[in-house]
Amino acid sequence: KNQVEQSPQSLIILEGKNCTLQCNYTVSPFSNLRWYKQDTGRGPVSLTIMTFSENTKSNGRYTATLDADTKQSSLHITASQLSDSASYICVVSGGATNKLIFGTGTLLAVQP
Amino acid sequence: DTGVSQDPRHKITKRGQNVTFRCDPISEHNRLYWYRQTLGQGPEFLTYFQNEAQLEKSRLLSDRFSAERPKGSFSTLEIQRTEQGDSAMYLCASSPRVFGYQETQYFGPGTRLLVL
């Protein structure tokens, strides 16, 4: 079954600290992997997108990594800010219909 | 604002009533998607259009749900005889048609539905 699992489910960090969010997937065939940021009550906003040939991609303080062999991805946030408080959703495109398969997200709270 | 817009942003209705949501995609995006998101979960695919053609429907889309995109621009999602289990955020996304596998979907702000 095509699935995307994320950990941790929630995370609280202090402003200025770094953190890493994890994503494991079992989608086959694999097309690409994206990380979205979703503020409370808003639609998701794309942060990064990677194909199987890309190992890392950065977007400002966000850096995503992909290991297509182990089917794992991580999103590293550097020097966190209060505005980083949101849900971060890992989304894998693939399977027989190349559909987007969403993880349940990691809820990040950055405290002052 | 040239992003995806959705209307209304919030809707409270009584069980058994019909509701209709509207989505205006980014201009010239020919793909349009509807998702449903419940609290603490990621979005679940409902249906998608390429231009005016509805190409795929999820099994989540019961016969009480219908979606249209009559002119290939805006889309509507109607829920008939609403049930409390329909309470969720309904998200719309659009994307341009690109070749390859790096299509990015741009999401609207969502319509939050509460069925009492």
Can you put this structure into words, describing what you see?
Chain A is mostly beta strands. Chain A is 0% helix and 60% strand. Chain A contains no helices and 11 strands. In chain A, strands 2, 4, 5, 9, 10 and 11 form a 6-stranded mixed sheet that branches. In chain A, strand 7 (62-67) and strand 8 (72-77) form a beta hairpin. Chain B is mainly beta. Chain B is built from no helices and 11 strands. The A-B interface holds A 4, 31-32, 34, 36, 41-46, 49, 51, 89, 91, 93, 97-100, 102-105 and B 4, 40-45, 56, 91, 93, 101-110, 112.
Topology:
The complex is a heterodimer of chains A (112) and B (116).
Chain A: E1 4-7, E2 10-14, E3 19-25, E4 30-38, E5 45-51, E6 56-59, E7 62-67, E8 72-77, E9 86-94, E10 99-102, E11 106-111
Parallel strand pairs in A: 2-11
Antiparallel strand pairs in A: 1-3, 3-8, 4-5, 4-9, 6-7, 7-8, 9-10, 9-11
Chain B: E1 5-7, E2 10-13, E3 19-24, E4 31-37, E5 44-50, E6 53-57, E7 65-68, E8 75-79, E9 88-95, E10 106-107, E11 111-115
Parallel strand pairs in B: 2-11
Antiparallel strand pairs in B: 1-3, 3-8, 4-5, 4-9, 5-6, 7-8, 9-10, 9-11
Descriptive keywords:
heterodimer, A: 112 residues, mainly beta, 5-stranded antiparallel sheet, globular, B: 116 residues, 7-stranded mixed sheet, 4-stranded antiparallel sheet, 11 strands
Number of helices of chain A: 0
Order of secondary-structure elements of chain B: EEEEEEEEEEE
Q: How confident overall, as mean pLDDT of chain B?
A: 90
Strand content of chain A: over 45%
Span from first to last CA of chain A?
Answer: 41 Å
Instruction: Name the quaternary structure.
Output: heterodimer
Summarize the structure.
Chain A has 112 residues and is an all-beta fold. Chain A is built from no helices and eleven strands. Chain A is globular.
